[in-house]
Amino acid sequence: MNLQELTSRSVAGDIDEINLVSLEGDIYVLEARMGARFYPVQDEAGHVISVRSVAHAREVLKALPNVPFHLVHAVVHDEMCGMDDERDIGAGVTIPLH
């Protein structure tokens, strides 16, 4: 899902939450949840958007309405071996989007 679609779906109320997923401690990617599915947020070329920090994520997402926003950490074992089909992400921390 690209940023334009994320914005449109957020305004329509389709996005349940946005996660800022920390990978390897200093790499962050954004994902949006609609229902039971998670969608990586991509740029116009189809590459997953990487952000540097919570502040950078807020800047990227500034056009969105206030939706639940969580900072989550991937489980180290899954980072090393690949994630299973089931979501195994550590407990997230809710942070304000705006």
From TrEMBL:
Q: Could you identify this protein by its name?
A: Cation transporter
Matching Pfam families: DUF6482
InterPro entries noted in UniProt: DUF6482 (IPR045508)
